[in-house]
Specification:
alpha/beta, six-stranded parallel sheet, globular, 285 residues, 48% helix, four-stranded parallel sheet, homodimer
Chain lengths: 285, 285
C-alpha cells in the first residue's frame, strides 16, 4: 500500500465514523430488538450493528459489577465496528451501568430509562406512575430517581416481574399462562391509583397488548423504545452525524450464543428479514 | 522456609489431595444443590467445594461450544481448591461436555446422566421411559443413547421443559402456576405408556412432588442425585481416596454472581446452614 492509498483509507474511515458509520444497539438478548425496530422505523437511513448477549441472558437477576463488566466488553466489541453512537437497549444496563460507560466514552451512549421516564412524567395526570421491570432495575430505583428529578412530587410504584423475560424468550407471550403471571405480579399495582405505567424492560413490549388489556383504558402504557429512537434522532442531527446517504440501510446482528434461535426470533419481531446472525466470543473483548 | 518445612508441605499437599481433599461439585446455579445434598447425606465425611455459575445461568438454552468453555473454566477454578474428584451436578453439562472434560482430566469426573439412566433401566417394566430436561439436554439425545446402550429395546420419550428452571429460581415451585406449566409440558407424555420418568435436570427434583402427583402411582419418578452420590462413593472407595477423617466435613460455596440470593436459596434446600457464599470472577479461569 503506498502513501496515497493510506491517506485515502484514513479519510474514508474518518468519513465513515462521522455519518455513514452504524449505530450500535445492544441488549442481554432479543428484547432490545423492540428498540432496534423503532430506530429502523424512525431513522430508516441509519445502519445498525446489533449485539444480543444470549450467552449470559438474563441480566435482570445479576449484580451491578457483572452488568458493568458485560457492558464494557460489549462496548469494546461495538467499537471494533466503528459505531458512531450506542443505544443501550436494555433497562437493566441503563439502570446499573449507563452513567459509568457514558463517562468512559467519547461517542454518545443513550439509555432507555430517561426517555421512558420523560414520557411518563408528561402523560401522567395524577403523578402516580407504575414501573414494571427486572429485579435489578426495580431495586436500583433508577426510574424513581429520574422521574423525581423531573417531577419531585411524583409517586413511583415499582414491581419486579422476573418471569416475564423467560416467558417471552420461551415463546409464551400469547399463552394463557402469561395472563396469570401478569395477574400474580401486577394485581397489587392495579389496585393503586396509577394512571401511567412504564414497560421498564425491553422484553415487555412483546406483552404490551396483554398488559394493556389487564389495566384497561384508565392506565396509559409507556413503551420507552419510541422516545429512545426520538432522542437518538435528535442527537445525530444536533451533532450533524446523521446518515445522509440514500442507500438502503444495512443491519448486522451478532450474538454470544445460539445464533439460529436468535435469527428465528428476530424474524418474528422485525419487519426487516434477518438473513443470518453471527456468533461472537464476547469474553475476548 | 527451610528444606524440612518444604518437604512437610509437599507431603501434606499430597496427603490432602488423596483423602481429605474436597469433592468439587458444580452446576449452572442452585439446581446442583439437590446433588450436593445427596452427597452430604451419603458421604458425611467428605468435604465439598460447590460452584454455581449464577452469572451465566441458565445453561439449558445455550450451545455446546459455550457449555464446554464454561465447564473448562469451572474445572480450572475447582482444581485451584485441590479437589480430588468432580461431580458435574448439571444435566446440560453432563449431556454436552462430560466426555471431553473427562478425557482432559487426571482426576475422576462424574456426571448425572449415566446414574439416572441406570436406575430408570432397572426400574422400568415395559421399557418405556420418559425424560424431562432442558432444551439442550433433550436435543442432545444423550439420555436416549445411554439408555439404549443398557437396553437396546428401550423406548425413550424426551420433553424439553425450559420454564421449569426460571420457575424454580424465582420461587414459584409451590405456586399453582407451576401446576399449569407442568400440564402444558407434560400432558402429551402422560398420555403415553411410560412407567418410569427421569427428572433430567437438577432443578426438577424441587418440583418432584408436583410432578409425581401429576403422573400418579403408575409412573416411577427417578431423581438421578441419589444414584450419582452412590457412584461417587464407589469410585472413592475403589481408589482408596475416601476421607477417613473423623472431623466434621467442611462445605464451601462459590458463585459467579448474586451470592446473597444463592445463600438464601441454599438455606432453603440444605439441612446444613450455609453461612456465606463467596464470589468468583469465573471468566478469569
Amino acid at each position: 500500500m503506498d502513501n496515497t492509498n493510506g491517506i485515502k483509507e484514513i479519510l474514508s474511515v474518518k468519513n465513515n465514523l462521522s455519518n455513514e458509520a452504524p449505530i450500535g444497539v445492544f441488549d442481554s438478548g432479543v428484547g432490545g430488538l423492540t428498540v432496534a425496530r423503532e430506530i429502523m422505523r424512525q431513522l430508516p437511513h441509519e445502519n445498525i450493528v446489533y449485539f444480543g448477549d444470549t450467552a449470559r441472558v438474563p441480566y435482570g437477576s445479576k449484580s451491578k459489577s457483572n452488568i458493568l463488566r458485560f457492558s464494557r466488553q460489549i462496548i469494546r466489541f461495538l467499537r471494533t465496528k466503528d459505531v458512531k453512537a450506542i443505544v443501550v437497549a436494555c433497562n437493566t444496563v441503563s439502570a446499573l451501568a449507563l452513567e459509568t460507560v457514558q463517562e468512559e466514552s467519547d461517542i454518545p451512549i443513550l439509555g432507555v430509562i430517561a426517555p421512558g421516564a420523560r414520557v411518563a412524567v408528561q402523560s401522567t395526570k395524577n403523578g402516580i406512575i407504575g414501573v414494571a421491570g427486572t429485579e435489578a432495575t426495580i431495586q436500583s430505583e433508577t426510574y424513581t430517581k429520574i422521574i423525581r428529578q423531573m417531577n419531585p412530587d411524583a409517586v413511583v410504584i415499582g414491581k419486579p416481574c422476573p418471569l416475564f423475560v423467560p416467558l417471552v424468550e420461551e415463546g409464551f407471550a400469547k399463552h394463557r399462562i402469561t395472563e396469570e403471571v401478569i395477574d400474580i405480579y401486577l394485581s397489587d399495582m392495579r389496585k393503586t391509583e396509577i394512571d401511567t405505567m412504564i414497560l421498564g424492560c425491553t422484553h415487555y413490549p412483546l406483552l404490551r397488548s396483554r398488559i394493556k388489556a389487564y389495566f384497561g383504558e384508565k392506565v396509559h402504557i409507556v413503551n420507552p423504545a419510541y422516545e429512545t429512537a426520538m432522542d437518538l434522532k435528535k442527537i445525530l442531527f444536533e451533532r450533524g452525524i446523521e446518515n445522509r446517504s440514500e442507500r438502503a440501510a444495512a443491519y448486522k446482528f451478532y450474538v454470544s450464543d445460539a445464533a439460529e434461535k436468535f435469527t428465528r426470533f428476530a424474524n418474528g419481531i422485525l419487519t426487516y428479514d434477518v438473513a443470518s446472525t453471527r456468533l461472537v466470543n464476547i469474553e475476548e473483548y
